[in-house]
Amino acid sequence: MYIIVGLGNPGKKYERTRHNIGFLTIDELSRRTGIIPNKLKFKASVGEGRIGTEKVVLVKPQTFMNLSGESVRELMSFYKVDHDKLIVIYDDIDLEVGKLRIRKKGSSGTHNGMRNIIYLLGYDDFPRFRVGISGENRRGNLADYVLGNFLKEEIPSVADSIERCADAIECLMKDGIELAMTRYNG
User: What residues form the catalytic site here (predicted)?
Assistant: First the structure.
C-alpha cells in the first residue's frame, strides 16, 4: 500500500495557486484512476483505490500547508506503511516552472509544509516529487508569490509537469522509484 500526499491549501481562494501543485497532481491521479479523495479523515480529504496492482490512498491535507505534517503523521500511524511507501508531491520554488525532480529522501529545503512533515514524522527517508513553480515574474514577497496564480503563458508547462508527475507516480507503482527517477527527473 502507498500513501500519496499532494500538498496544498484548502479552499477556493487557493485552488489554482502555485502552492497547490500537489493538490492539482492528486486531482490528475484521481481523474486517471477514479479514486476520489472525498472522505474527510486524518485532517485530510482521502480516497482509497488501486493504481495498477497497488493499493493506494490519495490524500489532500486540509490543515493548510504549514501544518501538513499533522495529517501525514495521522495517516502513517493509522496505515502503518513503510517510509518508502509514503510519497509527497509539492511545489518547489527553486525549480523552474515545468521541471520535475524526484528523490528517494532528503531535507525539506525551504518548504515549510515539508519541514513540518519531517519534523512531526521524525524522519525524511520517503520519496518526494517536487514540481517547479519558479517563473520569470518571481520577485517581491515569497508568500505572495507562492499563493499567486500561474501566469497565462506558464499554464501549458504547468499542465505538462502535472501530467509527467502523475506518469512518474504510475511508473513508480509498476517499476520502482529508480526507473521513475531515470525517466522523469529533469
Answer: 19 (proton acceptor)
